[in-house]
Amino acid sequence: MKTxxxxxxxxxxxxxxxxxxxxxxxxxxxxxHALKMKRVELYMQFDRPLIDSEVAPxxxxxxxxxxxxxxxxxxGTIDFYGCAIEVDSRVLIPRQETEILADHIVKRxxxxxxxxVCTGSGCLGISLKKTEPSLDVTLSDISKEALDLARKNGxxxxxxxxxxxxxxxxxxxxxxxxxxxxxxxxxSQSEYLNLDPSVSxxxxxxxxxxxxxxxxxxxxxAAVLPGHLNPGGLVFLEIGAGQGVDVKKIFSxxxxxxxxxxxxxxxxxxxxxxxxxxxSRVS
Length: 283
Ligand SMILES: C[S@@+](CC[C@H](N)C(=O)[O-])C[C@H]1O[C@@H](n2cnc3c(N)ncnc32)[C@H](O)[C@@H]1O
Prior knowledge:
Oligomer: single chain
Number of helices: 12
Bound molecules: S-adenosylmethionine
Distance between the termini: 70 Å
Helix content: 25-40%
């Protein structure tokens, strides 16, 4: 029977051999997860012998991580803006930048009807509903598999939401919102080919690639968003680093009272905010 410390050492070396990023950190996080304890608690139990039934799930976690699978999928849940969000290969792993987008949205919230289009795991719509329970939130995605997981995440977080399956705003025919939030796929075909394999081998292509140039979804949204926004309605988009100029150009026409690129913590333009004129109709 090996001790916790010995198992950690062995699994760290194994991950190192497999060229996995931050092998010791991965091993500690996964062992703590297998033993249902906090990572710091491991440090006080290095000499504890581990029985087979404790080691078996950990061995499986290490096998998956060693194959390059992102640690978030192996753990199965991430914390997003204070919400526990389940993730698996059906959805993109929510990124930290998207929490910054949530922050920008929370600061500017107005109105009641909020749509999270391209919702994936549901992280944005669910966390916004939890932050502001008076919102009437609808989540939509073109992937049934993703929407199933979003629904599960909504239930897990105890929030009541609506769920619509379909292409961009098509499922919202005849409806209008006060706030539309969207983190669409925005990587170009050529960028996709050069992506780190830890992303392209495991995360859904549908969640990543936004057409040949990467900006196709913004072009499609620019044409349909005005018709689905109430007067004074707000739009929040996540954009790729370096897409600010192109996205601004795409939205150069339309009934917009305000347009603003918003930055991430590093000061890079990563989000685009639009406010519809308050005197324009929904049409
Ligand atoms: C970048 S992921 C965003 C997921 C989540 N909102 C987040 O911030 O982590 C994009 C999502 O858009 C969905 N999607 C791709 N094309 C779409 C389309 N034409 N209409 C609706 N959803 C689409 C994908 O299935 C994926 O779940």
